């Protein structure tokens, strides 16, 4: 969650420290090449006036936190509703779902790469285009005994000829990592499996 995301939380009158409590601050990034030579150390933003900085947090923890705030504010949430259409009118928009219609000032589709909302709003629009890179990531299940730079608040990026690998040591000693290996074809269900100790 970078500083622009923190600003969005504050614009919604949300306390970033509460929403991001399950994460840890990462206000800096170091970049290195495949030989391990450090190329640069860059700020990732912050601190803001309230002391918050760019924070690394699992998406599941962020979603759970935002859902709890919405519930506290009495914002209704419904599940298993499929958008079937919409109608704009001078007072806003009517969104039609399976089994219900909802009135609102604005219709926002935040439903991912294969967005049904986007398909309904713009049925002749372009389809997503595969760019030749996969995206993978994960979390160590416990403290990692490795020779890593464990400077608090520092995200790491290592660049190779065709891909990068990124990681951040978490305060509990685990390591959060991500990578973008190249692939001529998009990954399909079942292409990759994980096992303890490595990838198969």
Architecture blueprint of SSEs:
Blueprint: H1 3-11, H2 16-19, E1 24-25, E2 28-33, E3 38-43, E4 55-56, H3 59-72, E5 83-89, E6 92-97, E7 100-104, H4 116-121, E8 136-139, E9 154-159, E10 164-169, E11 175-179, E12 194-195, E13 198-199
Outline the structure in words.
The chain is α+β, with helices and mostly antiparallel strands and 200 residues long. The protein has helices spanning 3-11, 16-19, 59-72, 116-121; strands spanning 24-25, 28-33, 38-43, 55-56, 83-89, 92-97, 100-104, 136-139, 154-159, 164-169, 175-179, 194-195, 198-199. The strands form four sheets. A six-stranded mixed sheet has the order 3-2-9-10-11-8, with no helix packed on it. Strands 5-6-7 form a three-stranded antiparallel sheet. The protein has a two-stranded antiparallel ribbon with strand order 1-4. Strand 2 and strand 3 (38-43) form a beta hairpin. The longest helix has 14 residues, at 59-72. The mean pLDDT is 88.
Quick structural gist:
By secondary structure, this protein is an alpha+beta fold.
Number of helices: 4
The best one-word shape is globular
The arrangement of helices and strands along the chain is HHEEEEHEEEHEEEEEE
Task: Calculate the mean pLDDT score and round it.
Answer: 88
How many strand segments? 13
How much strand?
25-35%
Q: How is the biggest beta sheet arranged?
A: 6 strands, mixed
| Poorly predicted runs of 5 or more residues | none
- The rounded Rg comes to 21 Å
Task: Kindly report how far apart the N and C termini lie.
Answer: 31 Å
The strand order across the widest sheet is 3-2-9-10-11-8
Q: From the helix content, strand content and strand pairing, which structural class follows?
A: alpha+beta
Bin the helical content.
Answer: 10-25%
């Amino acid at each position: 969650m970078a500083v622009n995301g923190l600003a969005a939380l504050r614009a919604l009158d949300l306390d970033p420290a509460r929403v991001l409590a399950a994460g840890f601050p990462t206000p800096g990034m170091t970049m290195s090449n495949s030989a391990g030579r450090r190329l640069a150390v860059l700020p990732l933003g912050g601190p803001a006036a309230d002391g918050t900085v760019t924070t690394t947090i699992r998406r599941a923890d962020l979603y759970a936190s935002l859902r709890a705030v919405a519930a506290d504010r009495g914002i209704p949430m419904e599940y298993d509703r499929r958008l079937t259409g919409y109608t704009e009118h001078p007072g806003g928009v009517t969104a039609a779902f399976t089994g219900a219609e909802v009135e609102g000032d604005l219709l926002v589709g935040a439903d991912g790469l294969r967005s049904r909302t986007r398909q309904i709003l713009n049925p002749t629009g372009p389809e997503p285009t595969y760019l030749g890179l996969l995206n993978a990531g994960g979390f160590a299940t416990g403290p990692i005994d490795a020779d890593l730079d464990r400077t608090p608040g520092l995200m790491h990026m290592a660049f190779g000829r065709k891909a990068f690998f990124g990681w951040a040591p978490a305060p509990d000693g685990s390591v959060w990592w991500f990578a973008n290996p190249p692939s001529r074809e998009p990954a399909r269900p079942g292409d990759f499996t994980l096992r303890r100790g490595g990838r198969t």
